[in-house]
Write a structure and sequence with these properties.
There is one protein chain. With 297 residues, this protein is mainly alpha-helical. The chain folds into two domains: 3-85; 112-283, hpI Integrase, Chain A (Orthogonal Bundle), CATH 1.10.443. Helices cover 56% and strands 3% of the residues. The termini are far apart.
């Protein structure tokens, strides 16, 4: 990548940070995608690329996931929009780049009896008052009972869950705040675990260097799964979040409520959970639709 392209990418990132308010992770993604495109276009300059030059990137990106290609093309469109706005180029050669259709992978889920087996494995140990077992039970209750993301869970402040307060306030992706319900079971598990913490603990799930890491949370859950007789590779924090959403939907929750609970900006993200509940939806139509009740003529 030439020094000129590097300077323009830096100017673009400065604009995205100051004017568009892009988050740090978004800026990092833009930087990586634009630098990758510049490297693949070499020795030609990214700034001077034609529509044909950009179209020629497709064969080089064939091995990449569709989502990655789509993100890179979106970064190029935004970058050349910036160059056009700044008067550096008269056109946007990325405007006609193909937009790959996003394909959302179906979530991996656990059946209710499998989640119950995980709770049984942890609860049996927690009954003895063993601190680590109390911690694991609190982690499991908040993951499955409230649908928290791994990063949200491990970084909870010591007093995030308060006695008599059936919810907590979280700041999730994109800085969006949402209220998350806390069941009485989860509150009891958290209280039992919190009673074992040192008085000066800043985090609900502390470690020697700050708070529990997502990697350690992942390891804990896999160990619980193994103890419950479930293949460890099937379990992760996100799988339990999926189980929370799927089982709520099966229990009658509507998509809008689920969207709020999960903190999704777009309901299309939430709709992915409907695939696991198709049997209930068919039964609902057959039993509740007026024409179904009327019977054949």
């Amino acid at each position: 990548m030439t020094a000129g392209d590097a300077a323009l990418i830096d100017r673009f990132l400065d604009m995205m940070a100051s004017e568009a308010g892009a988050a740090r992770n978004t800026l990092a993604a833009y930087a990586n995608d634009l630098r990758a495109a510049a490297a693949d276009l070499a020795p030609a300059r990214l700034e001077q690329a034609s529509a044909e030059d950009l179209a020629g990137l497709a064969p080089k990106w064939r091995a990449l996931a569709g989502a990655t290609v789509g993100r890179r093309m979106a970064a190029l469109r935004r970058f050349f929009d910036f160059l056009q706005d700044e008067g550096i180029r008269p056109d946007n050669p990325a405007a006609r780049l193909a937009r790959p259709r996003p394909q959302r992978p179906l979530p991996r889920i656990l059946e209710r009896d499998e989640v119950e087996r995980m709770f049984a494995a942890v609860s049996e140990r927690a009954a003895s008052g063993e601190p680590r077992a109390l911690r694991n039970l609190a982690l499991l209750e908040l993951l499955y009972g409230s649908g928290l993301r791994a990063s949200e869970l491990v970084s909870l402040a010591r007093h995030a869950v308060r006695p008599g307060q059936p919810f907590l306030m979280l700041r999730g992706k994109g800085g969006r705040e949402r209220l998350v319900p806390v069941s009485s079971r989860a509150a009891e598990a958290v209280a039992a675990w919190a009673a074992t913490l040192a008085g000066d603990a800043r985090f609900l799930f502390p470690s020697r260097t700050g708070h529990l890491s997502r990697v350690r949370l992942f390891q804990i859950l896999r160990a619980i799964a193994a103890e419950a007789g479930i293949a460890p590779e099937r379990v992760s924090p996100h799988v339990l979040r999926h189980a929370f959403a799927t089982h709520l939907l099966a229990g009658g929750a509507d998509l809008r409520a689920l969207q709020t609970l999960l903190g999704h900006a777009d309901i299309a993200t939430t709709q992915i959970y409907t695939h696991v509940d198709s049997e209930r939806l068919v039964k609902l139509v057959n039993e509740r639709h007026p024409l179904a009740r009327a019977g054949p003529r």
